């Protein structure tokens, strides 16, 4: 009887909601319908992110991968970047709520955590930088260079099991395959209409993306740089996983996926990305110093040498070749001259010119200033200019500690599966650090989120390995 009353009550509520929604849509039109749909979907997601942190973590990873694609469709005027900030805030809130039931502040310990905290504090200290040009520029910029680092602690706290780690890897690979197929479609079947509208919206876009009569491809990402870098790190993820305890069939599948990702990297026309995979393979040969890996590395080097040397009229291949001949690249010379020009400023401003003093935010909030017209064209150069040589030293220290920890943990981990995960993450960190010199590699979605996932997994894999060994010893 009680079940019948419950069912009747739910049916009445649904009827009221349906009739009310119909009336609102009749009065308010499509905007009211969109608002109702947002509430119907958003409220359950909101609850899920806070109450079920693993669900929230997956939502964050998927949203970071797809946000620029959705923004380009121009389906809504709502600032989706703010939505990502809200999602991050909810995950932080959920983490503190979880701490009440499962307290664990060890995530704040260790060299990586210490330097990340120092980096965040230093960026907040920039608000009183006497050379800073604009408080508004600081507010807009700190989200992408400091607050996003809090995801490291979110991942470190919530990724507790090998099963959840496997799920994250599968989601990452699935999103990467989708992005690669989308880029392949752009290369061979053209752009969708909303993408053509974007390409034709500003002559500057054509200047940047239309090279030698060919459009550079960007897939679902903000630009070709973000596309190419994500294809490289996805390929490195596959390479690392190949060294795990997988069947031959799965290893071949991963190898094919890595090749497909690298093919799409070439479609992007981003020269800075072309050197990343070969550089990471050198580190791989050093970490896994055996005959088979050395032979494969040597064969890969021969293939690259042939590709660089052969004469070609193909613009995509020519652009690939020019990445390995920087002295013949006019844009490389311009960047080198810009960096030489800005060196005296960096040396005389230990705290830099303030967050957001260069690039888009500099031009918007400090027009006419010396730094507003300076194109950093490099993650490291931007840090040096905006945060000074003190900030650059702190940033380089963080990257060194991450790499050192990754290499150490790789040799400390005994479990072959976890060892392969740590290997993949270390290769990715190494590649992105090299890529951060010719481009800004760590500030665009989804790399800004996934980089700190990678950093967290370097420590998580060792933690899971030690827990397994402890459990085995207790059972023995």
Secondary structure topology:
Elements: H1 2-28, H2 30-51, H3 53-73, H4 80-101, H5 111-125, H6 135-145, H7 151-158, H8 162-189, H9 193-199, H10 203-209, E1 210-211, E2 214-215, H11 224-242, H12 248-267, H13 271-274, H14 276-287, H15 291-309, H16 315-322, H17 330-348, H18 359-365, H19 379-412, H20 416-435, H21 447-475
Antiparallel strand pairs: 1-2
Mean of residue pLDDT values: 83
List low-confidence stretches. Answer: none
Structural class determined from secondary elements: mainly alpha
Question: Strand sequence of the main sheet, in spatial order?
Answer: 1-2
Task: Give an overview of the whole structure.
- There is one protein chain.
- The protein is mainly alpha-helical and 476 residues long.
- It has one domain (41-475).
- The protein has helices spanning 2-28, 30-51, 53-73, 80-101, 111-125, 135-145, 151-158, 162-189, 193-199, 203-209, 224-242, 248-267, 271-274, 276-287, 291-309, 315-322, 330-348, 359-365, 379-412, 416-435, 447-475, and strands at 210-211, 214-215.
- A hairpin with a 2-residue loop joins strand 1 and strand 2 (214-215).
- Helix 1 packs across helix 2 (30-51), helix 14 (276-287) crosses helix 20 (416-435) and helix 19 (379-412) packs antiparallel against helix 20.
- The longest helix has 34 residues, at 379-412.
- The radius of gyration is 24 Å and the shape is globular.
């Amino acid at each position: 009887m009680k079940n019948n009353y419950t069912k009747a009550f739910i049916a009445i509520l649904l009827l009221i909601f349906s009739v009310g929604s119909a009336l609102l849509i009749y009065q308010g039109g499509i905007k009211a319908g969109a608002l109702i749909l947002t509430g119907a979907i958003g409220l359950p997601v909101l609850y899920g992110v806070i109450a079920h942190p693993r669900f929230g973590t997956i939502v964050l990873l998927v949203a970071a991968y797809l946000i620029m694609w959705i923004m380009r469709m121009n389906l809504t005027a709502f600032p989706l970047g703010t939505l990502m900030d809200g999602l991050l805030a909810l995950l932080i809130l959920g983490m503190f709520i979880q701490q009440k039931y499962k307290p664990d502040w060890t995530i704040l310990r260790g060299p990586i955590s210490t330097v990340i905290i120092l980096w965040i504090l230093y960026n907040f200290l920039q608000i009183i930088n006497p050379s800073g040009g604009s408080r508004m520029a600081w507010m807009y910029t700190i989200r992408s260079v400091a607050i996003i680092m809090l995801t490291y602690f979110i991942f470190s706290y919530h990724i507790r099991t090998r099963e959840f780690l496997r799920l994250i890897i599968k989601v990452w690979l699935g999103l990467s395959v989708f992005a690669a197929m989308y880029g392949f479609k752009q290369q061979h079947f053209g752009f969708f209409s909303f993408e053509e509208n974007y390409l034709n919206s500003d002559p500057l876009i054509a200047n940047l993306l239309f090279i030698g009569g060919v459009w550079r491809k960007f897939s679902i990402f903000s630009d070709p740089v973000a596309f190419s870098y994500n294809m490289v790190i996805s390929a490195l993820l596959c390479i690392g996983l190949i060294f795990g305890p997988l069947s031959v069939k799965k290893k071949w599948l991963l190898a094919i996926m890595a090749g497909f990702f690298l093919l799409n990297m070439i479609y992007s026309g981003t020269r800075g990305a072309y050197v990343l995979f070969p550089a990471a393979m050198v580190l791989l040969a050093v970490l896994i110093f055996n005959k088979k890996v050395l032979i494969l590395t040597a064969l890969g080097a021969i293939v690259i040498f042939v590709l660089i040397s052969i004469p070609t009229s193909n613009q995509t291949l020519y652009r690939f070749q020019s990445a390995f001949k920087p002295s013949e690249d006019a844009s490389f010379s311009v960047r080198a001259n810009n960096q030489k020009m800005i060196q005296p400023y960096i040396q005389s401003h230990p705290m830099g010119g303030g967050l957001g003093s260069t690039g888009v935010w500099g031009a918007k909030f400090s027009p006419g200033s010396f730094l507003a017209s300076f194109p950093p064209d490099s993650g490291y150069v931007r840090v040096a200019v905006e945060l000074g040589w003190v900030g650059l030293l702190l940033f380089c220290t963080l990257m060194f500690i991450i790499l050192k920890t990754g290499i150490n943990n790789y040799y400390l981990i005994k479990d072959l599966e976890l060892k392969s995960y740590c290997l993949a993450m270390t290769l990715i960190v190494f590649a992105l650090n090299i890529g951060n010199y010719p481009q800004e590699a760590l500030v665009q979605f989804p790399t800004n989120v996934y980089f700190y996932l990678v950093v967290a997994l370097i420590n998580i894999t060792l933690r899971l390995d030690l827990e397994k060994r402890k459990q085995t010893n207790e059972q023995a």
